[in-house]
Amino acid sequence: MSxxxxxxxxxFWPLRLLRFYAGFCLLYLAWITLFLYASxxxxxxxxxxxxDRTSRWWLVAVVPLALLSMQLLGMALTRASxxxxxxxxxxxxxxxxxxGDLLVADMxxxxxxxxxxxxxxxxxxxxxxxxxxxxxIGGDTIEGRDGTVTINHLVVVEPFVQHTESxxxxxxxxxxxxxxxxxxxxxxxxxxDVSLDSRPTTRGEGLGLVDRKSIVGKPLYVIxxxxxxxPIQ
Length: 233
What we know:
The protein is of the alpha+beta class. The chain has helices spanning 2-12, 21-44, 56-80, 170-173; strands spanning 83-87, 102-106, 120-125, 128-137, 141-145, 148-151, 154-155, 175-179, 184-188, 210-211, 215-224.
């Protein structure tokens, strides 16, 4: 059983199988199976005749504690291997990420590489973690006209964009050219009519450009919603 535990831990790290939804399902299924096997083995295993028979009830009392310990250890292994789950309360990234989705993110993804155009990212701002899509990177000039975005005077194809308001908000779909400095990112939500993001507004409510240092991870897939297992692209 110790060997099986070691194999499962290796699945968390260094293999980092949680990068994939199938890996997530496999690891946690193996984790639960191991716990059930260990519990049944303890409850129904052979004991020396000198052991008081009533002592088995102590094992029954310990099962809930063991379940809690298993859950906490599983969470610790998940965090230690660089993954974290987030619940999304906002509709600003619909239909790519829906309100109520629970997603898994790779918190190490951008350690070795920089975000690219159209990456969905997580970034921290004032104690809150936001999820948006990178539209422009350092060196780009971005502009919005009637809901169409151009980067360096070229129209960007955005099949992920959604409009939910019957009357589009003018300032959210039209903005003057913005030169993005190196080390900064211009991010927008896929639900363009309701997203608070890098687009400048007359009321000054936008998030502004995102600094490279504030980017904390990359969402990978959904684990709890009607679209369980859906990759985030």
